[in-house]
TrEMBL record:
The lineage of its organism: Bacteria, Bacillati, Actinomycetota, Actinomycetes, Pseudonocardiales. Residues 24-430 form the Amidase domain. PROSITE patterns: AMIDASES. This is Aspartyl-tRNA(Asn)/glutamyl-tRNA(Gln) amidotransferase subunit A. It comes from the Bacteria. SUPFAM superfamilies: Amidase signature (AS) enzymes (SSF75304).
């Protein structure tokens, strides 16, 4: 096994015990970047010199007896929506081709203080407004989509070109690519992780969070992002009440996905969890709320450049931003009110259960040229609708949601299970995912 193959937990232990040098780890990861990046396209910018300098600094500090914690000397990637001083923040768009950040985002500053080594900035769907990330190919099958909008970050972790990565999630953009590439992704509680210095898509729905190889790895990254204590992981979930949706989450879901998620839920039950059927509230309003909030907020952010340099946007994103101008202010206000009502209704459901378990996506990674998803009942969905409808409720409600790999479909493509919890109950959500992970 190469150092680049290690989980964060294993790499951190090896560095702490001085069995592995940060320089060895960073060199191994950069070697992996050189090997696979030409075909995967995960990175917008690779910062090899910066990473090596950080690794040397970390090695010297550890040798002198200064160990900053589990992220010390760990190579990571950051989505190219998030400012790092001195580096471009392009949002994978020609609109920001000449932009260079002058200051660090809060999360970049905190990770730097933890002693990390930045490998580079990863591609996003332009301005995070999509679920494909067309510049990047799936880490398992290059003929399939990476997922988005944090596709570059998920592929970097899945391919060994980063030990962990940061993404953003407005309608599923951490969890969807994590599920499609067979890694773990956490969308934390709304505002738990600061968004200062992050290019917004929708202020009301945006979240920043980690993508890792294991749930235990997430628990190591999260404290550095939040400034809070590390979540206490437990593998004992005896008595944990898991809500199994009777509606919405298993509607129009591929049989392979449904079977894998149900099998994972059964595994959780065998570990001592108690299964409880639940009714998901206000499901007919999920997509209308998502669009009526996100559309106007995205357009408001882009208002000036949409007027001055509209030709620099891709046709897809320009159309979405122009469509956002057509939503009346009254509809936007109604959507915000409906968002509040949906949050209240979800909290009532979560008084009866501790977490809700469901598929992360209805299908696995589709071919790169596929435009629509047909279903046996005659309904045909756009790709965006297919990938957003199971993930966006957690954005609308602001609840923590974790995607964990739970197997593969008949084509060998990864499947993800989503665990959704109460506000600021990341420890409960992560413990459930950790217990499942250990059992498999």
């Amino acid at each position: 096994m190469r150092p680049s193959d290690l989980t964060l937990t294993a790499a951190a232990k090896a560095i702490r015990d001085r069995e592995l040098s940060p320089v060895e780890l960073v060199d191994s990861v950069l070697s992996r970047v050189a090997e696979v990046e030409p075909r995967l396209g995960a990175y917008a910018t690779v910062t090899a010199d910066r990473a090596r300098a950080a690794a040397i600094r970390a090695a010297d500090e550890i040798a002198a007896g200064t160990y900053r914690g589990p992220l010390h000397g760990i190579p990571y990637a950051i989505k190219d929506l998030i400012d790092v001083a001195g580096l471009p923040t392009t949002a994978s768009s020609r609109v920001r081709a000449d932009h260079v950040a002058t200051t660090d985002s809060t999360v970049a500053k905190r990770l730097d203080a933890a002693g990390t080594a930045l490998i580079g900035k990863t591609h996003t769907h332009e301005f995070a407004y999509g679920f494909i990330t067309p510049q990047t190919t799936n880490a398992v099958d290059p003929s399939r989509i990476a997922g988005g909008s944090s596709g570059g970050s998920a592929v970097a972790v899945a391919s060994g070109t980063a030990v962990f990565a940061l993404g953003t999630d407005t309608g599923g953009s951490i969890r969807v690519p994590a599920a499609l590439n067979g890694v773990v992704g956490l969308k934390p509680t709304y505002d738990l992780v600061p968004r200062d210095g992050v290019v917004p898509l929708s202020w009301s729905l945006d979240h920043v969070g980690p993508i890792t190889r294991t749930v235990a790895d997430v628990a190591l990254v999260l404290p550095a992002l939040t400034g809070r204590d590390e979540p206490a992981l437990s593998s004992d979930i005896t008595g944990l009440r898991i809500g199994i949706p009777r509606n919405h989450y298993f509607d129009r879901v591929h049989p392979d996905v449904s079977a894998a998620v149900h099998a994972a839920i059964t595994r959780l039950e065998s570990l001592g969890a108690r299964l409880v059927d639940v009714e998901i509230p206000m499901t007919r309003y999920v997509l209308p709320i998502n669009w009526a909030v996100m559309g106007p907020e995205a357009t408001a952010y882009h208002e000036q450049t949409l007027r001055s340099t509209p030709e620099l946007y891709t046709p897809e994103i320009r159309l979405l931003l122009e469509a956002g101008q057509l939503i009346p202010a009254t509809d936007y206000i109604r959507a915000l009110r409906a968002q509040t009502l949906m949050r209240q209704e979800w909290l009532r459901v979560l008084e009866t259960v501790d977490i809700i378990a469901a598929p992360t996506t209805p299908v696995t990674a589709i071919p790169v040229d596929q435009q629509e998803v047909p279903w046996p009942d005659g309904v045909t969905e756009t790709v965006s609708v297919t990938y957003v409808r199971l993930s966006s409720p957690a954005n609308i409600t602001g609840l923590p949601a974790l995607s964990v790999p739970v197997g593969q479909d008949s084509a060998g493509l990864p499947i993800g299970m989503q665990l959704i919890g109460r506000p600021f109950a990341e420890a409960v959500v992560l413990s459930a995912g950790h217990a499942y992970e250990l059992s498999t």
